[in-house]
């Protein structure tokens, strides 16, 4: 298939003929990777090894991207990328922020997209004339971090990401935790505050209502709906003032600590990777949350100190994970 190439290493160690390095060719068997976000959709042609060869992104109004419109725009982006790069994808992997049935790509429910019972895998597959695999965004973020990011050496990992919504992906024993039908990891919908705010899912007091984008805006005294770049800029400015960061984000950090303590007691991961807006939290806040989670978690005290790390893939985690999902199937059938 021309998936790898062999090269002579530039540095030699010891006597004898050096072994050839076997390296993946990024352009071999490219796949189409799609990240359907609540406010942005991204499409990439991706090569072996997690390399994004080209990307197209566009914004959508929150909750107003209909499945048909999204499919149509993805088709246009695919044509643009193929024309630019001169290579056709063999398969597509798609990330969606919702409850997804992996077997056929049915989006059972994506509250923040306002999608219910959408056969997105078949809709997109028919439009692209490609086999399509669909997964939950946080599950694919966990997969990406485990294969290409900060969790490569860890066996038990939780990926917790916060944007408009909050999602979680779980790796246990080096394998993605799927659950019945692939429905698992909705950590953002753990109820942590029964008297709290109404969640888009219909329940009240979900973790998402306390550590999602809207909650972060409240903590930072920013108006609801503040553009993402402004939220990120505010968080980065706080990084230079640890005392102010700890003060302004004290309530937010307490809810994050509560959620992570529950996760640690339930799953006992060795590593928690923070993604999305959580990856931009000031280091002082991440350090404080780490200390609190270690002290409060019964399982953590018994099993040893959990590590918290911010995502190495930043905003590309779901996109890289979508590519990895497609490659899993490409190589499984080749």
Name the strands of the widest sheet in spatial order: 5-4-3-6-10
Radius of gyration: 20 Å
Q: Report the CATH C-level class of the largest domain.
A: Alpha Beta
Going by CATH, the architecture of the largest domain would be 2-Layer Sandwich
Count of the separate structural domains: 2
Largest sheet: 5 strands, mixed
Task: Report low-confidence residues grouped into runs of 5 or more.
Answer: none
Helix and strand sequence: EEEEEHEEEEHEHEEEHHHHHEHHEH
CATH-defined fold name of the largest domain: Nucleotidyltransferase, domain 5
Let me know the average pLDDT: 90
- What is the β-strand count? 15
Share of β-strand residues? 15-25%
Shape: globular
Keywords: Kinase, Transferase
Protein name: Sugar kinase of the NBD/HSP70 family, may contain an N-terminal HTH domain
Pfam families: ROK
GO molecular function: kinase activity
Question: Would you write up a description of this structure?
Answer:
By secondary structure, the chain is of the alpha/beta class. The chain has two domains: 31-136, Nucleotidyltransferase, domain 5 (2-Layer Sandwich), CATH 3.30.420.40; 150-311, Nucleotidyltransferase, domain 5, CATH 3.30.420.40. 37% of the residues lie in helices and 24% in strands. It is built from eleven helices and 15 strands. The protein has helices at residues 67-85, 120-128, 137-148, 207-211, 213-219, 228-238, 242-248, 250-267, 283-296, 298-303, 317-333, and strands at residues 4-7, 21-24, 31-36, 40-47, 51-59, 92-96, 99-101, 106-110, 115-119, 132-136, 157-162, 166-172, 175-176, 271-276, 307-310. The strands form four sheets. Strands 5-4-3-6-10 form a five-stranded mixed sheet, sandwiched between helices. Strands 13-12-11-14-15 form a five-stranded mixed sheet, sandwiched between helices. α1 (67-85) packs parallel to α2 (120-128). The chain is globular and about 50 Å long.
């Amino acid at each position: 298939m021309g998936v790898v190439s062999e090269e002579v290493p530039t540095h030699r160690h010891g006597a004898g003929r050096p072994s050839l390095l076997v390296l993946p060719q990024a352009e071999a068997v490219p796949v189409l990777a799609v990240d359907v976000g609540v406010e942005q959709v991204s499409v990439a042609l991706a090569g072996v090894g997690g390399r994004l060869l080209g990307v197209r992104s566009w914004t959508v109004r929150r909750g107003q991207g209909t499945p048909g419109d999204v499919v149509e725009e993805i088709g246009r982006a695919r044509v643009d990328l193929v024309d630019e790069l001169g290579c056709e994808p063999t398969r597509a992997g798609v990330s969606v922020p919702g409850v997804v049935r992996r077997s056929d790509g049915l989006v059972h429910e994506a509250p923040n997209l306002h999608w219910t019972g959408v056969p997105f895998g078949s809709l997109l597959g028919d439009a692209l004339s490609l086999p399509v695999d669909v997964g939950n965004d946080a599950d694919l973020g966990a997969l990406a971090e485990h294969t290409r990011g900060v969790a490569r050496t860890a066996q038990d990992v939780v990926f917790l990401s916060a944007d408009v919504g909050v999602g979680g992906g779980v790796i246990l024993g080096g394998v993605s935790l799927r659950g019945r039908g692939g429905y698992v990891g909705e950590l953002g919908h753990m109820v942590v505050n029964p008297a709290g705010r109404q969640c888009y899912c219909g329940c009240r007091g979900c973790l998402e209502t306390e550590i999602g984008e809207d909650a972060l805006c409240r903590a930072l005294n920013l108006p609801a709906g503040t553009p993402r770049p402004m939220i990120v800029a505010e968080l980065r400015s706080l990084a230079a003032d640890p005392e102010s960061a700890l003060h302004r984000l004290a309530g937010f950090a307490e809810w994050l600590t509560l959620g992570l303590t529950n996760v640690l007691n339930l799953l006992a991961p060795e590593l928690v990777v923070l993604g999305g807006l959580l990856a931009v939290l000031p280091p002082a806040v991440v350090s404080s949350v780490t200390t609190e989670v270690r002290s409060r978690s019964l399982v953590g005290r018994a099993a040893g100190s959990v590590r918290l790390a911010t995502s190495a893939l930043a905003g590309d985690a779901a996109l890289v994970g979508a590519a990895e999902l497609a490659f899993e199937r490409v190589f499984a059938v080749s």
